[in-house]
UniProtKB/TrEMBL annotation:
Pfam families: RHS_repeat. It comes from Vandammella animalimorsus. This is RHS repeat protein. PANTHER family: PROTEIN RHSA-RELATED (PTHR32305:SF15), PTHR32305. InterPro entries: RHS_repeat, T6SS_VgrG/RHS, YD.
Length: 463
């Protein structure tokens, strides 16, 4: 015996694990009997490097190849699409070419921290670190700088945005956040129980507190909001685990929960007063689960039952509604849904690019197509009528223009903190926006020069 886990048994369910002579996990079987398999490199010195992953349907979903030093050089998914990884040790650079052929480069310092990322569009993000490898500075592709300061334990104590506005965070000796002060000086405070480390109160900048209470086992049993409205919770041991048995809302509505022998929630019963003066009405739902914990049936308060079926990989393949009508689903090798057939016989289909992004969605034969740029952002959408809309972005991923099917464009501008400061419609009419230090919208000036002002209290609630 090597001390490896071969079985995990609980709540009537068992997981099985098998290993090779090198101690590598070679298979896992879930409680339903679905088995996943793993293979490892046969090269000398690489016995623990995973090369193949096969799912319970027998599909090879991931194949990984390594160089002589054990670094990943290629990964191929179930669709046969490959990611290529090149590592230049001398230059401390790694490049990753995605399944669509777009390359992202990563530069590292001597300690292995990422110092620069060059995206597929040429945008560069730079990073700087302190002596403890804490990230202290980030400069985005537009040159906007965010800085951070840390305490001796590595907790972020200050974060300053590109506008110079600083948010401060304080901690107790256990590393728990005790105070967050926004750039406008408004503070939210957390109170902790020093004996149990439980959060007992959250006080907003107005001094309004939400309070939390716990039972002897540490489960939340009472939550009182700032208005004094309390919700209570009751727990009981079920199959060796603490589970919520009931919840009582501030208005007295009680919801009770039931569980099956595996610990899955199997019923919900709510006793509610539906009209003034009426007796409480019980509203019940029921559900069943398979050995893997997947929902197999659901019965609504009207007694209407729906059922669900899955393949060995856990993908939902059939849904049967209370009328006995069946909806069927199909998937590709990567697990993306490719087809849904409705009880009427109408079919919805989906297509994806090599990175798994949806490129075509068809409902009853009416298709919408989407194109993406090298960074995976949607840049063009064509509706079933052939009308095309386009979206453009800046180097930081912010939308700079949106063009409708008639060629009319609306443009957008942003401040250094990424907040929208101006939008200009297709007729050239501009609306301007201003914000306070906390990021709240304070003014909107429409194309006629008319100003709408917004004011807020210390808790950022509009007044």
């Amino acid at each position: 015996a090597q001390g490896r886990i071969s079985q995990i048994h609980g709540a009537g369910q068992t997981h099985h694990y098998q290993y090779d002579s090198a101690g590598n996990l070679t298979s896992h079987s879930d409680p339903s009997g679905a088995q996943s398999n793993y293979r490892y490199s046969a090269q000398a010195g690489q016995a623990h490097l995973l090369t193949d992953y096969t799912d319970p349907l027998g599909r090879l979903l991931l194949k990984t190849e390594y160089d002589q030093d054990g670094r990943i050089v290629r990964q191929t998914d179930g669709q046969g699409k490959t990611i290529h990884i090149t590592t230049d040790v001398a230059r401390q650079r790694q490049t990753i070419k995605d399944r669509n052929g777009h390359t992202t480069a990563y530069d590292f310092d001597q300690r292995g921290n990422v110092t620069q990322i060059t995206d597929a569009a040429g945008g560069i993000t730079r990073y700087a670190y302190d002596a403890n490898d804490n990230e202290i500075e980030v400069i985005d592709p537009l040159g906007r700088k965010t800085t951070r300061a840390y305490d001796q334990y590595g907790n972020i104590t200050e974060e300053t945005n590109p506008l110079g506005q600083t948010t401060r965070t304080a901690y107790n000796s256990a590393g728990q956040i005790t105070r967050i002060t926004d750039a406008a000086g408004h503070a939210t405070e957390n109170t902790w129980d020093s004996a149990t480390n439980d959060l007992t109160a959250i006080t907003n900048p107005l001094g309004q507190a939400t309070r939390l209470g716990y039972d002897p086992k540490g489960s939340l049993n009472r939550l009182t909001d700032a208005a004094g409205q309390a919700t209570s919770y009751h727990y009981a041991k079920h199959n060796g685990a603490q589970r919520k048995q009931s919840e009582t809302a501030p208005d007295g509505t009680v919801t009770r929960y039931g569980y099956d022998s595996h610990g899955n929630q199997s019923s919900t019963a709510t006793s509610a007063v539906l009209s003034p003066g009426a007796a409480p009405t019980a509203i019940q739902t029921a559900s069943e689960h398979d050995a893997a914990g997947r929902l197999t049936s659901q019965t609504d308060p009207e007694g209407q039952r729906s059922s669900y079926h899955y393949d060995a990989a856990g993908q939902l393949t059939e849904e049967t509604n209370p009328l006995g009508q069946i909806t069927r689903h199909q998937y590709n090798q990567r697990g993306d849904k490719t087809q849904t057939t409705h009880p009427s016989g109408l079919t919805d289909t989906w297509a994806y690019d090599a990175e798994g992004r949806e490129t075509r969605a068809c409902q009853a034969g009416l298709c919408t197509q989407t194109q993406y740029d090298s960074l995976g952002r949607a840049i063009q959408t064509t509706d079933p009528a052939g009308h095309t809309s386009a979206t453009a972005y800046d180097a930081a991923g912010q939308v700079t223009s949106a063009t409708d099917p008639l060629g009319h464009s609306t443009t957008y501008q942003y401040d250094l903190a990424g907040r929208q400061t101006q939008s200009t419609d297709p007729l050239g009419r501009s609306t301007h926006y201003r914000y306070d230090a906390a990021g709240n919208l304070t003014e909107e000036t429409n194309p006629l020069g008319q100003i709408t002002r917004h004011s807020y209290n210390a808790a950022h609630q509009k007044t």
